[in-house]
Structure formats: structure tokens, C-alpha cells
Amino acid sequence: MNKRFTRILATSVAAAALIGTLGACGKGSASASSEGSNEITMWTHNAGNPEELAAIENIVDSYNKSPGAKAKIKVQAFPQDSYNDSVVSAAASGKLPCIVDIDGPNVPNWAWAKYLTPLKLEADVSKNLPSTVAKWEGETYAVGTYDVALAMLARASDLKAAGIRVATVEKPWTKDEFQDALTKLKALGKWDYPLDMGTAGTGEWLPYAYSPFLQSFGGDLINRDGFQSADGALNGDKAIEWAQWFRGLADQGFMAKKSGKDSTQDFLNSKSGILYTGSWAADKARAAVGADLVVMPSVDLGNGPKIGGASWQWGVTSGCGNSAAAMDYLSYSLKSENLAAIAKATGTIPATDEAAALLPEYAKGGTNRIFMELSRNYAVMRPETPAYPFIATEYGKAVQDILAGADPKTALDKSVKAIDANIKSNGGYKN
Amino acid sequence: MTTTQLPPTGRRLADPTPALPPRKPRRRRRNLREQISGWGMIAPAAVLLLAFVFLPAILGFGLAFTNARLVSPRPVEFVGTDNFARLFADPTFWRSLLNVSYFAVVVVPVQSGIALAMALLINKKFRGVNFFRTIYFLPVVTSMVVVSLLWMFMYRKDGLINEMLSAASFGLINGPDWLNDPATAMPAIIALSIWQAAGFHMIIWLAGLQSISGELYEAAQLDGASRWHQFRYVTWPGLKHTRTLVLVTITIQALGLFDQVSVMTQGGPLDSTTTIIYEAVRSGFKQQETSYASAISLVFFVLVLLISAVQRYLSREKD
To answer: Does A2 reach chain B within 8 Å, measured CB to CB?
Structure first.
């Protein structure tokens, strides 16, 4: 019996050792042959978005055919849901491609983890929308070809019927005006809830959509001075005011605690009067509602309207064997006509004025020009700290709990405690 | 298994018939060959299990005592029991433990009961029995994620279930917003879970029922036993082993509650549906705290081990 047991043990140890060596071999050879200098790989998250993918592939094709191409770019597309996991596991096994796309607020986290290398581009990005250039600790780590902007959509006829003025970039609604508008709209009795804030959203939508309100009140996700603690910013008086206001919208019957699955569709089906959403919904809404559609800036809750900045951006990985070619491609992709092509395909805001001039809807006087102004005037970057992914989950949970009836102070204190503990256990996320 | 095939060598030496000395080495050789082929046959499964279950599990237990991160440039450091101290001080963890207990305490008896009732119903010979077997089993082969998505629509304020309640009560009952009310979210998940999984245990019960000899029922009928007495004194004792299996599998399945929560409520509202596994996945992947998630997993492992051991002890053969 004993002898047999020893044999089992010996076999298993041998097997484990074998597998271990095989694994090590695999890893070793992969990182060695990582990227041949004449072909570099680029990963993108938009396998589920054929228009955006096609636009990117077009640019890559034209770069590959251009005489100045320093390498051949190969595109690999992933579904958005599994994209971040793919990058993280590729990084763990040393198999990152040369170029990756990144959701803007994650850039500092990946830069801190040394996935990304600082960009040295020929293209001048100083005039691009500030929210399309991701900086961390003084270096630029990623550039975006576009941004998106949050806004409020409504039908001019509804606002007129309720006797409310249309908010403009010059004169956005104040907190009281917003309250008044919702009261009047509700009195029309046309909808179950006059406002749809997309409260059924999960994940990154929660901090993207609702932290700007917090910032407009004067609070924030974290103290941006050094990014070491959220105490006072996320649980101070301003933050409590924000939480009470937000909860109040639901309590007064202005919005659902959990909206429908597709807020845009609900708005088009006249289930809500005002839709708070991103610029991506505008084209669809305009096609359905026509000239009656008005695009309004977000509410000024004390410190001016705020909206989230930064969408998907491009970066070069630190293990890239031919980073000169990768940077060269990024510079190429930032040419005005390329920016315009992607913005057109995705219904997003092009990163520069020159690119906007190529698109009638984003050129001066165009129907979507307002989104560019919103982005320029109101965009606040989500905190540029490697702690952001953690902060986002904690804030998202706090929002959901507050909507579900949790005491604002308790919920926010809990988030602050968790965030501060996380920052501390990571040594302050210092380089 | 192998021990029964191999009589102890000691006794064979003491064998009083020494007329067969040449058989011994041949037998031993044959045994050796049998052993080798036996090991050869379990080798693929054993290697895969070792490489993809045991090794990661052991590594995970090790990680629980470090400060490992999913994404981090910092070297991994040994931090002792810090993660566990944090875990036991976290009210969300205790809440998830409570939720899982609530879920298990309801699901284990109700689901096994319903499964047994269904098994008894379809353990008859009548036309169309296969049709009912298929119907009862259908939810099991449907992915839990798909089931959860569908039920999410049914549970909405204006969803199918509330419409049915309202129609059945002539508009008197105005159903709650099932998944968004801390009081009803967990019961809603319990109902859907039982509906989805009962069919699987029905099949196990059915196998047990069909292994009970028909003669026992004939004898019981001759003795004038009623339907209930037949169930109580023939069926129920005959299902002893099946019972243990069903109990243990449902318990483990209940403790591992995750899919429904992840799809439908993300642990909310107000932590009323969060579970141990959900917290582990949330901290491990969303919050990048690999070590903390490992600590949660280790606690979960110990918990399942304890509960299974207790169940095993209670349902042991009592001679």
C-alpha cells in the first residue's frame, strides 16, 4: 500500500514537473519570437462592432500599402467583454501585441503595471481634444481618435408643452431649473417617469455617467492632489448632497430606480421625456425624432456642468520589438482624414477640429457640433491614477446601493474606506 | 479497488497447499501488468486533474497569504493572514455567507423534494412518459445564463409574472419589482434556481427508483400496505444511497451560487443577493485583488469541506 502510494506520488510529481517545463518552454519561445520586426500585431476591442472594425482595418490597409510603412500591421479583434481579460492574461504570459487599444480611464493602471510605454509621436497632439490624450505622471501613454460626450436629449415639442426653456451650452439648466423642468414634465402625465438616466446600466457606465454630477456638486471620486485618499472628496458634504439629490430624483418619481434595458429605445418609444445618454445615441435619435430633437448640456449643479472624458484610445506596449513602427502607425492613424473616417463610422466626436471640418455634422453649425463643444468645455477626466479600476467598482456599488435606499453617508464612507485601504496596500500606487 | 484484487501476500505464503509453486510468479507478473494498465488508464485523467485542478488550487491557497494583484508591477510579498483579517472584518462577506445559507436552507429540501415528486410521477409506465421526462429535463440543458436573462424579463415590474398575478387576481395583486427589492430578490432567485436544476436531480432520483426491485412492491401489496406505506417502508429506505448523493450535490451546487446573481442582480440590491463566489470573482477580476479573492476561495473550500464531512458523517452506514 505504502509503496503504491509512493509510486502515485512519484508519477504525479513527474507529470507536474513535465507540464511545468512544457509551460516554461512555451512561454520562453513565445516571448523570444514575440514580434518579428516587419510584422507587428494590433489588438482591438471592437469585434462586436463591424463598422468601427472596418474603419480601423481600412486605415491599417492604407498604412500597410503606403510607401513609408515601417512594418506591416496585423489587426486582431476581440469582443469588448473579454478584451481586458485577454490583455491582462497576455501580459501575465509575456505575449502582449505591439499596439493595444485601452479604455481611457484604465491607461494609468496599465502604464503603472508597465504594460505601456510612453508615446513619442511625430504627430502633434497638442490641439487634439484634451480628453483624447491620456497622460500619467507627465508622460503621454495613449491617444484616442475620438471621444464621446454625455448630454440630455429631449423633444422640443414636449419642452414647449411644459413651458420649459431649452438649455444651451451658454446657459445650461441649474439645479433648480432642472427640478422645475422635471416637475412640469411630470405634470404633463405623459410618461411613467419624465427622466431616464440609464439607471439599469452596470460596470463602467456607473462612474462614467454619474461621477460628473458628483463633480458638479463639488465632490470627486478621490482627492486629486496626490491621489492617496478619497476621504472628504467622496464622502464629504458635497458628496452627500449629490447622493441625496440623485436619490431624490427617484424618490420624487422623476426617474426609475432601475430603467429599462434599452434607454434610447424607450425614449424613442416615448416612454421618457428626457434621456441622459452619450453622443453615440444622437444619430439614431435624430433619425427617429427628426428636427424635434434637442441636444442639451448636462445640469449645472453648482460648479458648472461636467461630463466624463476619454473613450477608447491606442497605446504601445513596453515589450514591443519595433516600437518605432508602432509609433509611426499611430501618427499615421491620427491624420485628419483617418480621424474623420473613424468618427463617421462610429458616430463619435473626432479628436481634432481639422477632422471635424471634414464631417458636415461636426463642422461648425453641424447638428452634432454641440457634442464637440460639450467635450471641450465640460469634460473631466476620470481620476488619472492606477487605482481607478478599483475606485470605479466601489463607486458603482455605492451608486447602486444609494438608489436602492442605502444611507448615503454609510454607503460613501464604506467606499472611501475600501478605496483608501486599496491604495495603501498598493504602496500608494507610486512608480 | 486494487486491494480486493490482491490478497495479502502473508496469507499466500501460509497457504497449506504448496503444490502450485510455479503459479506464483506468473500471477504476480499478471498482477503487475494489470496494475500498469490500470495506472495507464487513469493517467490522462489524473494528470489533467492534477495540472488544472489540484495545482491551481494549491497555488491559490498559497496566494491567499500574499498581496498578489492581477495587474501590478510590484513584487508579490508574503503578508500572513492580513487577507483573512480583512475578510472577517468585512460586513459584505458575512452578508454573503448569510445569503448563501438562506439560499441553501431553502433550496436543498425544496429542490430535492420537487425533484423526487417529479421522479415518482414519471416513474410510471404510461403513454407519453418520455414527453414529460423531456419537458422536466429541458431547463437543465438550457444554460443558466440564458435562463437568468429570460427570467430577468419575467421578473420586471411590468413583466410576465406580475401580469399573470394581476390577471389571476383580477387586478388586486400589484406585484413587486422582484429583483430590485431587497426583500424579494433572493426568493426570486431561489424560485428560478429550483426550476432550472430540479430536473437534474429528478433523473438521479429516477435512477434510484428504478433500482428498487419490483418484487418488494409486490410483497408489500400482498401484505396490504397502502400507497403511503409502500413509499415509507419500501421506496424511502431503498433510496438511501441516492438520497445521500442528491443531498451532497444539491448542497454543493447551492453553496456555489453565482451565475444567476452575476447576470440578474450583481449582488444587489443592498447586498441582498451577493454570494461568496460572487464576491470572490468581483474582488479577483473586477477589483484586481487576486490574493483577497484567493482568501475568499480558501474559506469557501474549507466551508464546503466541513459541510460535506458533516453530511457524510450523518448519512454514514450505521451498523
So the answer is: no
